[in-house]
Design brief:
Elements: H1 3-16, H2 20-23, H3 37-59, E1 75-85, E2 92-94, E3 104-105, E4 109-111, E5 122-127, E6 130-136, E7 145-157, E8 161-173, E9 176-188, E10 201-217, E11 243-260, E12 264-282, E13 284-286, E14 289-291, E15 299-301, E16 307-309, E17 316-317, E18 322-334, E19 337-345, E20 350-359
Length: about 350
């Protein structure tokens, strides 16, 4: 694979990795993080979960387009796009049911990142009964489809086994970066059936694991209407190092079968999939503070005591899905060129299409 193709794949992945950059309007509408580490993390999880799940579902796909392993040292190079589809039930969530503390209140349905492109309920952040901050929940993207581009190599091994590898080194894009690694094994069951070479179909077992790591910039600045920070923090530079670190893992274990005809192959699989997404924040984040002078009226201010570091936010593990997956598709082979497409039915459905070259 050329360096240019790798870079183009990286551009696609980082822009689609939860579409965080575009969905958050360059991460400028993250006022919920001002409410403090615990509530801010809970809201971020609820907001971004649908794309995290859809992205993980996409990473689980496009591993195979036939159940027949390559012969020894046979190989293929395949590229494709798997589109994870967010169910309509995940377009909104009730802000009163995500476990927010009594300091952050609001009611009604808010958009997730995949939900309607409208601002949601008004949220109020208070301390000792005094309002520190009010904000509307951020809009969604009105987009339920999360494309995940994949490129991989398959290599025939002894004993009816095929090794599949996905890899992309760390690529820096738009102040962020992304890297990917995946490995899978396909093992023929038909080889143990007498007379299998006379049969037009194959059956194999497959297991594949993919891990994607991304780093996306965030932008949360102090409210310019309130007093600025004093040393050692510089309001112009101290909040320019905010990042969202994303780690997505996807596991696919399936039994697959294919009907092999001269030009076209029909294939399908039934198995188990599981995804896991971990999110961490790094950098300095400003939160409003209630100042209560000895004599005088309490007031709200941004000061050094309100600065929260990324390590102050709890680890965020997305409530990912796991369960049965079933897919069906077809592959057309013209000489050494292959074209394939399939549909996967799961909690987060997936559409896949791709092409490649295949030898032996």
């Amino acid at each position: 694979m050329s360096n240019q193709l790798i870079k183009r794949s990286g551009v696609l992945i980082i822009s689609l990795i939860l579409i965080s950059i575009e969905s958050f309007s360059q991460f400028k509408d993250v006022n919920f993080l001002r409410s403090g580490p615990i509530d801010g993390a809970k809201y971020l999880q609820a907001y971004i979960s649908p794309f995290a799940n859809a992205f993980g579902a996409g990473l689980s796909g496009d591993w195979y387009n036939t159940a027949k392993p390559h012969k020894l040292l046979g190989f293929d190079i395949t590229t494709g796009i798997s589109v994870g589809i967010v169910p309509t039930s995940a377009e909104t969530f009730d802000v009163s049911k995500i476990g927010l503390s009594s300091s952050l209140t609001g009611s009604g349905l808010a958009s997730t990142v995949a939900g309607p492109d409208n601002k949601g309920p008004l949220m109020t952040y208070k301390s000792n009964g005094i309002t520190l901050l009010t904000f509307n929940t951020p809009p969604g993207t009105a987009w339920r489809y999360v494309p995940v581009p994949i490129a991989q190599i398959g290599l025939g091994l002894p004993l009816g086994t095929e090794l599949k590898v996905r890899f992309m080194p760390k690529i820096n894009i738009k102040n962020g970066n992304v890297s990917l690694f995946g490995v899978g094994l396909l093992h023929s069951i038909m080889q143990y059936v007498p007379g299998n070479k006379l049969l037009p179909f194959d059956v194999s077992l497959f297991a594949g694991y993919t891990k994607l790591m991304g780093n996306v910039p965030v932008d949360l600045q102090p409210d310019p209407g309130l007093s600025a920070y004093s040393a050692p923090y510089d309001i112009a530079t101290s909040f320019n190092n905010q990042n969202l670190k994303i780690n997505v893992q996807a596991l696919n274990i399936s039994a697959i079968a294919s009907l092999n005809l001269p030009v076209i192959t029909f294939y399908g699989g039934l198995g188990y999939c599981k995804t896991k997404t971990a999110i961490d924040l790094t950098g300095n984040f400003p939160t409003p503070v209630l100042v209560t002078p000895t004599n005088g009226t309490p007031f709200v201010q941004y000061n050094n005591t309100g600065i929260k570091k990324g390590s102050d936010f709890p680890n965020m593990d997305i409530n990912n899905f796991s369960g049965l997956r079933a897919n069906i598709g077809f592959r057309i082979k013209l000489a050494v060129v292959t074209i394939h497409a399939d549909y996967t039915k799961a909690q987060y459905n997936v559409l896949t299409a791709g092409l490649g070259i295949s030898f032996r």
